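Researcher: Watch the backbone:
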Amino acid sequence: MKAGSKFLNAVSAFALSAGVVASGAGVVVLASPLVAQAAVIQRIDVRGAQRAGQEAVRSNITIRPGVSFSNADIDESVKRLYGTGYFSDVRISVSGSTLVVTVDESQLVNQVVFNGNRKIKDDKLQGVVQTQPLGPYNEALMNADIQRIREAYAQIGRNDVQVTTQVAPIGQGRVNIAYVINEGDRTKIANINFVGNNAYGDRRLHDALITKESGPLSFLTRKDVYSEDKLRADEEALRQFYYNHGYPDFRIISSDAVLDEAKNEYTITFTVEEGPRYRFGNIAVESTVPGIDGSQLDNLVETESGDIYNAREVQKSMEAISTKVAAAGYPFARVTPRGDRNFQTNTVGVTYLVDQGERAYVERIEIRGNTRTRDYVIRREFDLSEGDAFNQLAITRAKRRLEALGYFSRVNITTQGGSSSDRVVIVVDVEDQSTGSFGIGAGYAANDGVLLEASIEEKNFLGRGQYIRVAAGAGENDAQTYSLSFTEPYFLGYRLAAGFDLFKSQTSSNDNYEYSEQGGTLRVTAPITEQLATTLRYTYKEIEYDESSSNLVSPFRELVAGGTYQQSIIGQTLTYNSLDSMTLPREGVYATVTHEFAGLGGDSEFYKIYGRARYFHLLSDELDLIGQVAVGAGHVVATGDKLNVFDQFTFGGRQVRGFESDGIGPRVSNGDAIGGTTYFNASAEISVPMPAIPEDFGLRAAVFADAGTLYGNDVPVAGSVSGTSGSWRASVGAGITWASPFGALRVDYAVPVVKEDYDQEQRFRFSMANQF
């Protein structure tokens, strides 16, 4: 019934009786003095509610027998009944002392199905649409569902999806609904352009963005999917990039994403204003908190006068000061940086003001948007919980931790007022992203020939934040490798990363013998500071030499007599990590020092210490030219009668490229390496993006120089041993790294320039890049 005809019918009814008629078009007030002022009815008569039932209708109207009502009550009752969605028409009238409510019931939805969808499964789409089985059939709701489906496909990069509906009546007031989906092709990002950038080229700025241009491997990386949220995140990423590189005046004039519907591709343009580059001026700490002397906090400040302005260093300084002051018994203390900008010298002086902030407590932490990751995985990254003193710097630190997990494509933390003026609600909005990967790798080693490995990795197993990896590999000469790793990052509810590794491998050596090892490691890592951590581990390993069908000859036969050996090792590692990125570091230090003791059972008795440090520095912002230097050393001593051959260090292509994995160091007369007791190594490298190739592809070229030595031998050997003198080896070479969807891969070609006659070369080497 049309709204206009309902109005006419209501007016016609006035000629028959004095009353009120209400419909979806509104409430028509008639010339009844009783209703115009106030009315009382004695009963309610419901007509037409066959499926819903009369009581369901009565519960959704505001009029009650014996209670006076007005036109407003009738209007509200009509709205409520329509709001249920179960009625297509509602009419209310008064007949004497009876309120007559007449309804026409909507059809019910029997079944909702999806046809043509492959990229988004049915269960995901069921959560998107609001039309549900046993719910009312509503065309307006169904049209809104079509838009929701389109938005869901836009989030996975398919903006040209087409959605239609089919409605099939099945009798008894029920219908089946089918959403017919034509998913179309992936919507590409053809170009990302920058306007107004002078200090940095487009290639350098592309690397700072989350969104990437479409390329041959975009279907794997999924980084070319456009969304409004990602565009806002890219804006923030650009701001942070410039703020951290000396441009505090940087601002984004505009960011536009234009969709070419004919080509089904976006063009994104950022218009920016960089402003001048600044350095730090005078740095000071002032405190108004009784008992806190600002000068005593100077050593916590990481910003130094004369350095390039860096907002990240300012934030780290604020966090360090805040943590120190809170530990001294001032949980509400607030640290605020005050900038003193000098436009003539382009310097920014920073004074860190420490004062008593307002007393506020965390009322609750509200998590939103996580469809896979469990709430407690997010909550545990906060250093505060409900009831604790509110600290803004703790919120900033939690956001940084959540982003570093790699579980989310977007993390946004805001605050809202709580139930009282001293209560704060922390709202965490996240968006889950894929954290699983399947990788296939290939490599080459002189002894084992071509090596192939397949692996499955999940960084957020079952949404619990757990890490699991399974890998298997095979190569020539019967080389085989198997491994399983598992890590629980918050063991027993503490910030302890506990896990285990199981491994098994076998290989051969120049047809002299077959070598295999199998075992496992238990480990736990505890943070000491934000950048320093310690790891304790226990490893049990069985090592077997099989010479039964070999040409193994003395003196190496004597070194591996007995066939099977056991190692029982406890170890401890200190790790320092100040890198700005674990995938492509440009600034910072990564260093480890490890102690190991073997002797709790097994056939090995030794103490071993070894370590490595790598320093990265950005040599040119414009060229993205990264320099790095690395040094390493190790020494092992026997704590029992002697060392076994497998207790000593092996040394080669992992430390000095251009040589085999154990191509450097002491050897017996048949050419087999027996390792050494002491090693030193150093390397220097410069890398730059590959020219003429889009930086989003992830290819970088590098040149390097390596040097190292391995010497000493505590293994009893019958016969002569070469290479115990400690002479240095050196090589130079070039390499290519690729940030592939399967992980960072690297190919190097190195030429030894200083070597010994008995060393074994391997000029071409394939490896995983950045194995920290």
In short: Residues 108-182 form a domain with the Ubiquitin-like (UB roll) fold (CATH 3.10.20.310). Residues 191 and 267 are 5 Å apart (CA to CA).
